[in-house]
Task: inverse folding
């Protein structure tokens, strides 16, 4: 959708994004066939099917946020806040909007997957923490020996992207619990010297962190749903 609004060609799903979407779509279709054939008295399969289709939509929105942030970033050439033209200020504001939207969605999407895994494997994570996150679910998975293969794969992916996720989480927490993340950068610079000009944050570095967050989410979703599919066929 955003690509069309921005005058770009429609997206062609490929790589980790395609792997994740295909794995989820296959499981949603398999659940639907199973319900049509056997029914679903407790509505458990229907619930997971709905959540899965929601995850596909959420992943699409996350990818679009990253793409739009990268698109608007290309128009920002100034290195300091006071050097930006009015047009650049508008493009920068649009970059910030989609960048923020992206890093918030990374953790929101992971937490939604945590809800699916918690329900699918009866992990009872809410007994440990009523408002649990994906990472709490991941720790809970380690306690189930029969799910060791899934736990090891998801944990390996988490470790591979640990640095980028830590930076994104810090900015997410600043945005939600403290102040706007870009204002926090400005405040830090002010502490260095009141007469110093305010430099723009590392836009390219931040976008790379978000790209890695998107990739981590894609690989995590693909691994989780491939595992579900293999279990269904075993």
Result:
């Amino acid at each position: 959708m955003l690509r069309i609004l921005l005058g770009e060609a429609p997206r062609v799903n490929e790589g980790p994004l395609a792997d994740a979407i295909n794995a989820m779509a296959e499981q949603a279709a398999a659940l639907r066939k199973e319900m049509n054939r056997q029914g679903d008295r407790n509505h458990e399969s229907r619930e997971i099917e709905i959540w899965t289709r929601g995850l596909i939509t959420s992943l699409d929105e996350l990818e679009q946020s990253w793409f739009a942030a990268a698109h608007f970033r290309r128009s920002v050439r100034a290195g300091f806040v006071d050097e930006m033209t009015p047009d650049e200020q508008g493009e920068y504001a649009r970059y910030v909007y989609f960048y923020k939207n992206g890093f918030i969605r990374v953790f929101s999407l992971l937490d939604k997957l945590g809800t699916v895994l918690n329900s699918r494997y009866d992990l009872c994570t809410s007994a440990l923490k009523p408002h649990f996150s994906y990472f709490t679910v991941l720790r809970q998975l380690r306690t189930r020996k029969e799910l060791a293969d899934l736990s090891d794969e998801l944990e390996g992916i988490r470790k591979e992207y640990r640095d980028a996720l830590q930076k994104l989480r810090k900015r997410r927490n600043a945005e939600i619990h403290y102040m706007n993340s870009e204002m926090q950068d400005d405040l830090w610079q002010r502490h260095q010297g009141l007469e110093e000009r305010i430099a723009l944050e590392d836009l390219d570095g931040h976008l790379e962190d978000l790209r890695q967050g998107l990739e981590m989410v894609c690989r995590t979703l693909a691994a989780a749903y491939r595992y579900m599919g293999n279990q269904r066929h075993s």
